[in-house]
Amino acid sequence: MYHRYIAAKEASSAQRTRVLIIDAAADLLAASASGDFSTREVCDAAGVAAPTLYHHFGDKDGLLREVAADRFSRYLTRKQALEATGDPVEDFLRGWDMHVEFGVTNPALYTIMYGRPMDGRTGPADHAHAVLVTKMRDLERAGRLRIPAETAADMVASAAVGVTLHLIRTRAAADDHLSAIVRDAVTAAVISPPAVPGAPPVTPQLVRAAARLEAEMPHGPVGTLRASETTLLREWLAQLSALSSAAGGDPP
Amino acid sequence: MYHRYIAAKEASSAQRTRVLIIDAAADLLAASASGDFSTREVCDAAGVAAPTLYHHFGDKDGLLREVAADRFSRYLTRKQALEATGDPVEDFLRGWDMHVEFGVTNPALYTIMYGRPMDGRTGPADHAHAVLVTKMRDLERAGRLRIPAETAADMVASAAVGVTLHLIRTRAAADDHLSAIVRDAVTAAVISPPAVPGAPPVTPQLVRAAARLEAEMPHGPVGTLRASETTLLREWLAQLSALSSAAGGDPP
DNA sequence: GCTGCAATGTAGCGATGATACACAGAAGCG
DNA sequence: CGCTTCTGTGTATCATCGCTACATTGCAGC
Question: Which of A6, A160, A231, B67 could serve as a FRET partner for A90 with CA atoms 20 to 30 Å apart?
Answer without folding.
Answer: A231
